[in-house]
Amino acid sequence: MNDTAIPLRASSRLRVLIAAFVSFLLLAAGAVVVPPAHAADGSVDASVTAASTSGVTVQVQASGLPDVAGAYAALIVKGTEGSISAGGGYAAFAMPFPAVSGGASSFTLTAPAGSLDRTQAYEVLIWQQHSNPDATTIYARGDVEVTAEQWDAVFGAEPGTDPGTDPGTDPGTDPGTDPGTDPGTDPGTDPGTDPGTTPPASAAIEVFLADGTTPAAGTALRAGDTIVVKGSGYDPTANVGGRGVPIPANLSQGTYVVFGNFAANWQPSAGAASAARSVGTQAWALSESVLNQVPAQYQGAIRAQWVDLADDGTFQATLTLKDAAASPGSYGVYTYGAGGVVNADQERSVALDYAVPPKIVISASLATAEPGITASVTGTGFGATTGVYAALIQAGTEADVTAGGGFLAMQYVRGISGGAFTVDLTAAADKLDRTKTYEVIVWKQHTMPNADTILARGAVAISDADWDTLFPVEVPTVATTVTAASADEGLTVTASGSKLGEITGAYAALIQAGTEADVTAGGGFLAMQYVRGISGGAFTVDLTAAADKLDRMKTYEVIVWKQHTMPNADTILSRGAVAISDADWDAVFPVDEPMVATSVRTATAADGLTVTASGSEMGTNVGAYVALIEAGTESGVTAGGGFLAMKYVPRITFEAFSVDLTTAADTLDRTKSYAVIVWKQHTMPNADTMLARSTVTITEAQWDALLGTKPEEPKPPVTPVTPPANVPGGSLRWAISSSFADYVTGPIAQGSISVSGGATRSGGQFQFGQSVGGDFDVTTGVGSVVYRGSVRFTGHHGVLDITLSDPVIRVTSSNSATLFVSSGGSQVAFATLDLGSAVRTTANGAVSYTAAPAALTAAGRDTVLSGNSTVLNPVTFTIGSPAAAPQGTTGMVAAASVTKKAALPDTPPATDGIVVDEKNLAALEAGKAATVSAAGFQPNEEGIQVVVYSTPVLLETVQADATGVATWSGTLPASLEDGAHTLTLQGSVDRGLAFTLNRAAAVIGACTVEGATLKWGYKESFRTYIEGMAKGGWTLTGVEYRYPDYVWESGTGSFDDTSLAGLVAFGGSIAFTGHEGALNTTLANARIELAGDTGYLVFDVTGTTQDGASVDQKGVRLAEFAARDAAVVDGVLSLDAVPTALTEAGAAAFGTYAAGEALDPVTAVIPVDADCGVAAPVEDGSDSEATAAVTAATTPAITEGAPVWPWIVGGLVVVALAAAGGVLIARRNRAGAAEVTTEV
């Protein structure tokens, strides 16, 4: 079958007709799909209040909304809420989020014209924040009526059907023979069809210097210079058709105005490929009326380059010159049809005198042969030069260079070919000075270096690590040890200094930590010594501080500083903290033991015995129980008995108290002895809780007064009474908040949970035993019950620290109760309990409530949880007798599992051992996908790190197979510079491969990228966490936040359509902060890297991660996404809401989530060079059989209620078109084969 090529204009029209027909089929299918039912109870009154060419404004009044603070709202095509995503699916989205008060909200929505379609019906949708709209989340919806007049205001009036003016309805007129009435005739080619418009003259351009008046011809130009291009005769209505993206095919595509390096045969009309046109700077001349009709998602990319093409065919563009990526020909200004349209009349050029200056790239490293620094210099752009001098010098000293000296190293570079060379300059260590800076200069051969002869220069960056290797610096240290501690002598600290070098004298002082600024010759220290005669850089001295100068609540350190100075940042040589143990402190400040004194105040038969108990030296105990008991029977004391008298002292002041204990005379037995005991509040008396005890002395006279002197008359025997059954012990079982506990021990907070004070944990439940106190009445069912024990939540490396202690439940009715906790030294009403929904049981005098729903109070949220809300778990509690907590775990009961990643070695741990064949080595060195392997690892060993050097960059981790062979397949980061590198596999053994990267072999950059946009939100839950729990936010530089994405614009770079490799840089930065500075991480210099089937989001990561680690890593492949379906379509490479995931390198750098964690989807629009991805022209007279490979033929899911016939017909249309020759909308070129994708 012969394959006949369709002319461009006919092809464009055919494509428009096909698109319209398929759109009709899809609309037909959509028209009969039954929309899903919604449970929205609210109502929406929406009306259009403004309509113009820029779009429409809709005023919204909503009512009947739920009791929420805010909601999401959007203007959408009616019934399409299922298409809403982070990447779009709406005509307008309400920002800021509409506030809701009393179930009502009022706001406006503004939809740009590019997002509207007058053939569609629209509605306003309101739904729950942080969710996708569906039947469970939609609050309200309401139709929006747009009148015909309002649509006309946006898009212009629709053409009429007057038979007197419409040739299609006038049977007496033949539109094919009457050029005056044939609307199908192109006015750009038939000037006689538009008597009201004078056609523009032939296109022409003039180029001027920055002043806009001085011709640029003959002036030597360099990168950074500005020129002004003035064009005339460019028809603003021409160039209709093209690819359809970013400008619809029914509109003029405009004209590219380009400064670049173009081949002699560069014109698209002559069939020149895009490789013949290497763009440096580009502008896009386009009528403003056309630009306003471009879809909103593409306008940003065009406006970044846009200049207005006036109705009279003139434009003026200002271009800042920069080097082109390639040099196929000559530099100049060129114009040609945009969007893939070919228009020979607009192909114009003006040659310019532009020269690319020579450049050198320098990398510094430690010399290998002898101590020193080697500067590896790579020169490019030296043109026809065959020889130069290159020298390593102290920066700015080129005037001192002679044939015999004035440099640290020099080479005469001969035989330069192609304007490029590489040379190593090595400076010996004894010629270097760390306090100075160095550079490399390259100058003309057979001359001395000066302003006229120097061709290029560049700084030499020597790392601190390399300086330290060359000139190791010993840092003075001081070690401290407490060698004596007593109340009389105070505290003696022995300070041992070392590594002081040649220092012979210094001052050493014991001070309160951080108070060196207060030190003077006469004070500001606890002890000081002038240490003379230091020898060998070491000394030992004792510093003794009197006890009255010390404070147990403070910390101390020893500082050592230069003699004859005051201590400050410049003079302090070393400092060391002093570790003082509790035993040392107790020796300095002996602790007085609590005591209690007793005396009998009164003793009578009528009033019984009253004993006065006076406690002292109670220390930090703020409350205690005091009881009169039979001596030695404290183990029998309970909340209900086991004592003769008991008092609760709730507030001990000045470490002392005094109470009277009274017991009836008939409770005493003169044959026994009695005592008063004092123990800690909210506990039972035992060896750990007892504070003091004292024997009560009762005289014989007092016994006589109590019991008399006559023997007691014998009483008749009585029948023994069966004692009542023991009341079961009370307890509280409560998980508090499972979600909060999971957060604390999760990857973000990285914290722990511990229980103490009698509490335990079992099965996720915190358990508390009932304590003495409380006044719950079983009969009335109201009152309070006290439990004892503490639960402590810590996280964010100490920033989060919450303790809940000694819960108290106050039952106020049969249906309600309040749960109090002690926090921060005060009792807080933490939660309300719904007893009506709990199961209530009674047994043996105890009352139990099971699974009582709990709700956090405002006081609990603000006072205990620092303003953060959480969902509480149900509470189960028993009110019985005092008892220990149920059996369970104590101490630390849960902790985050945090694996501390070892730092990557600064230098390659191995340079051999990796096996690679010739093909993969060539691919690796060209920056393409390659596969390497190495043996010797443990069988099935996991976590083997793939790291590339010079600067270590973690690529990913791999697993060895059963034989211990580890294999890695992938590509090197596009940001990795050309030159010598080492690829390593690091695990139980280390393997390496030295190679030289030379991306020139990969032909990257065949397509120039200008004006790209990137949208990515990182991770929605992380943003919520930053603004919520972390009490932080983000600071943007060169980036905008347009919910729910961060948006970068004006990205530039290159893209190779053959290998699907490229790098687009956007710049900008996002600085995340939270937890009062504990989290401070910046993502900077955003890049999209495409590497075949995989793409990466690349950032420089600096700051402090939320786990407290410092990070400073460049070019981190933070997130990855699938790019296998990416293709250049009509000059644009698009990513639409593609899922992303955290990489191994990203997890190591960001420190919050594990590798593989799902991140927000990425959306990007990457315009490439005009001819990138366009199919090669078909040679005339070809007799090959046309083929069209349909790469994706899938059966759409059949929604209930939707007819299948439109899909079948649509599929038949596609197949028929493919069989007839096809419509080429996207093409992906690959080595050895061309894959053509037919899409509708």
How is this structure best described in words?
This protein is mainly β. The protein has 9 domains: 8-24 and 1178-1237, no CATH class; 37-155, Immunoglobulin-like; 204-351, no CATH class; 359-470, Immunoglobulin-like (Sandwich); 488-588, Immunoglobulin-like; 595-707, Immunoglobulin-like, CATH 2.60.40; 731-895, no CATH class; 914-1000, Immunoglobulins (Immunoglobulin-like); and more. 10% of the residues lie in helices and 40% in strands. It is built from 13 helices and 70 strands. The strands form 15 sheets. Strands 37, 38, 39, 40, 41, 42, 43, 44, 45, 46, 47, 48, 49 and 50 form a 14-stranded antiparallel sheet that branches. Strands 58-61-62-63-64-65-67-68 form an 8-stranded antiparallel β-barrel. A 5-stranded mixed sheet has the order 12-11-10-14-15. Strand 61 and strand 62 form a beta hairpin.
